[in-house]
Design goal:
Structural class: mainly alpha
Shape: globular
CATH superfamily: Rhodopsin 7-helix transmembrane proteins
Number of domains: 1
Helix content: 55-70%
Radius of gyration: 21 Å
CATH topology: Rhopdopsin 7-helix transmembrane proteins
Number of strands: 2
CATH class: Mainly Alpha
């Protein structure tokens, strides 16, 4: 059941938060995804790691949808000078979108990390049995379905959504002292922790392999290429993903897990 008291207090709270930060997040997110898409299109004919385009397209789409939907709703709250409040049905929708897109983005990064590792291992073993395009599409769809099921648990009756300060965003209620909300929080936390561990462990192992044998970096490029033969931009992306994903997720996960365990 919704925490009506917290919802009512947040709706009545005429916050004094600046809208500048929301605009910065919206513009930087949109421009970043647009730039990534352009660079991807430019380099698609020079790279043999074709699966990255499928996974990266899914990653860009999830980020763009998050920016368009979530920030537009949050901006409406700010531009109304905090007089408009999200209705409960919109809060449920916002919570679903937030959980779904955040989980999907993290798991897609994990997929990309796993895929590069497997590509190097197959090439190292001189295997020509590379996955087909359909396999990668199915893997991406499977991740989206899993993220959707996890995000849809409150809509199916397991746990609740809740409005959070300054009344501009919603998430599932991980602060409620009820068994269904605790279970929902633990499921979300388990998926996030597994995603983080897979990304970090497989990513670090891949980087170590590349450092020991730099020729592995050339496995993903066409043989006639000279510039960029060691594929350093892909390694940079992996390092950035390994570092940024834990930094962005870990504080929230630690706080949520601590709150959940203290309530048991």
């Amino acid at each position: 059941m919704w925490n009506q008291t917290a919802y009512r207090l947040l709706c009545l709270d005429n916050g004094n938060e600046s809208i500048v930060f929301v605009y910065i997040q919206l513009v930087s997110g949109a421009l970043g995804n647009l730039l990534a898409a352009i660079l991807l299109l430019i380099s698609q004919n020079d790279h043999k790691w074709q699966s990255i385009y499928i996974f990266f397209a899914g990653l860009v789409m999830t980020d763009l949808i998050h920016n368009c939907l979530c920030y537009s709703i949050a901006l409406h709250r700010y531009t109304s000078h905090f007089t408009w409040c999200l209705p409960t049905y919109m809060c449920d929708f916002y919570s679903f979108i937030q959980v779904f897109l955040n989980l999907a983005s993290g798991m897609i990064i994990a997929l990309m990390t796993i895929d590069r590792y497997l590509y190097i291992m197959r090439s190292q073993n001189h295997s020509r049995n590379h996955f087909r395009r359909r396999t990668y599409v199915c893997a991406l769809v499977g991740v989206l379905i899993l993220a959707g099921l996890a995000a849809g648990l409150p809509l199916m009756g397991l746990g609740d959504s809740q409005l959070f300060y300054p009344g501009s965003w919603c998430f599932f209620d991980f602060t409620a002292n009820t068994i269904d909300n605790k279970i929902n929080a633990m499921i979300f936390s388990l998926i996030c922790v597994c995603t983080l561990l897979v990304t970090v462990i497989i990513g670090v192992r891949t980087i170590v392999m590349i450092r020991r044998n730099p020729e592995y970096q050339a496995l993903l490029l066409d043989h006639h290429l000279v510039t960029g033969i060691y594929d350093k931009h892909v390694t940079t992306f992996l390092v950035f993903s390994i570092v940024s994903l834990p930094l962005l997720w870990a504080p929230f996960l630690v706080g949520k897990l601590t709150c959940t365990y203290l309530q048991f």
